[in-house]
Amino acid sequence: MFKNEEMEINLGPQHPSTHGVLRVKLRLDGETITHCKPVIGYLHRGVEKICENQTFFQGQVWTDRMDYCSAVANNLGWAEANEKLFGITVPRRAQYIRTLLNEFNRLASHLIWLATHALDIGAMTVFLYAFREREDILDMNEAFCGSRLTTTAFRIGGLREDLPPGFEKMARKFLAKFPTCLEEYENLLSENRIWKKRTVGVAMLSAEDAIALGVTGPVLRAAGVPYDIRKAFPYAAYAEMDFEVPTQTAADTYARYLVRMAEMRQSARIIQQCLDGLPEGPVMAKIPKILKPEVNEVYHATEAPKGEIGYYLVGEKGSINPYRFHVRAPGFINLQSLPKMAEGGLIADIVAAIGTLDIVLGEIDR
Amino acid sequence: MTEPIIPQAPDVPEAPAGPYVYDYAASPQRQVVMPKTVPLPSYRTYLAEVQAAAEADEAKWKKMQADYETAKAKAEADGKDAPKPPVRPVPRKDDNDLKTPWPQEAKDADLLLLQELLGAKVEEIFEQAGELTCQLEKGALHEALLLCRDHEGLRYEMLADQSATHYPAAADFTYSVVYHLTSISRRKRLRLRILVPEGFVPESACSVYPSANWMEREIFDMLGISFANHPDMTRILCPDDWEGHALRKDYPVVGWGQRDIAFREDRGGMIERIALQKAGQLGINLKQPKAE
After folding, report:
1. Which of A209, A360, B58, B238 would give a disulfide with B242, using CB separation of 3.0 to 4.6 Å?
2. Does domain A7-365 have CATH number 1.10.645.10?
3. pTM of this prediction?
């Protein structure tokens, strides 16, 4: 009556748990995945081509639209790559404010990861709790630059404006209540029997595989490799900050959950230090109105919430556009490891594997 | 027996030869301005440029002096006052925070070690903006990647990024392919670069660094460089039947047919009329004042 053969199914492209428009071709033996192939490109807009035909100042707007959950982190990478290309020194106050906003953005991105990942696996309540705190961070974004999601927060050479009055009060109020909120999420999940059954030992990726596949960010740190660009190649004001790089050795979905929760605590620590030690001074370097580079190529990588985001820029002498602009998107490289994680596991666990990679398709397809 | 009713085909004029014609001349929106320079950073080129600029400056100064001498001799012959002696122009100093990162001579131990190990296969090593660059002969790439990963003094465990650039104005190559390696244990970054001509098939890095898989597919998709011994050399971001490679410099920015469709749909100026109406509601005068 039933044939004993492998079945092919498509997960996506319009599946709610694929975080965008991701299509995964699966071959199943019963409920076990024997073959898995991600198919991407449904959101390809040609950001690199567009940026090559716009000026250096205009390109930043496109970095918001890549990973729309962590727009500030993308802006920071773009601004710093350009500053490296032109040799601009950014004032210290601007560095601190950038660090501050970047860490707030990391919190927002991790919160949206927690919300959607838990929702995918079946824990509905955390979604509502996490979005409550994310709302406060978006309000702070709005207070700073007038926009909530696509921030375009920084300028090449510093910031457009200083922090608005009342921002520090908002930030301190948020910091005072945030540890309690983190405990709330952990009370809901950490020792939850269903959560542990869905995550412990699921979607394993060993440290050797992760390094070979170029995986960065919390996924690599959950495999026991303490590689964080904020520590390894310090940028912005991270060299002056006192924080730890949380790691786990289990290399499964639960370990990644623990790493990200610990990272949120460290982010709150960094924000506290930024607020306490905010130096006085200007927020913008003295730069010409029109930036024209010399012949130079730079690759600047920063630690986005999802992993290493790298910008490769080639400057042409006398031109106001970048000759070549390339983004090393963390999600694009991390998604390569999905077959390694999912093959041999159950079909129900691929949703956990996609969620734990924390992908945003807008950045993968660019 | 009744005749079967055959529906008459409506008398529709044939659609204009589609917007999907790859014809630059037909649409001004798709005109491509080809780059005229080759912005390939290189210490050797930089030194040559600096020397040429110094020589030009010296020649200009010599000419100014010679002009002054002739003018002086002429003035003396005519019995007039002698002209002012020339002042050597000082280069203008910009009052801003820019410090252009010029290429520097390679002093880093990794670059020197690579040059020692690979010998003549290394074409050039230099540092710029704090980044190490090693340009290799295009056939020696696989060997260099293996060395970088396995050699005790290098230990670059991760291929962080791989990318390529199109240089249509260059004489003896068309693309540069760059590999950004990261050493997690030693906290270092290194850039390997090869220059390949059109049609050359470089060796894939997949066997050394499996992370190169999708990055090489992206390069193939966007620039049309295919890699040898790659497990799956297909397009990744664009559909399989896409024509052209978008990040080449001869590829237009505006997509095929975007403009043409907008004009074809706008038969009778409907869109223009709606735009004027909306603008009128908002109190904006879109109409250009007519010349009298």
Report:
1. B238
2. yes
3. 0.83
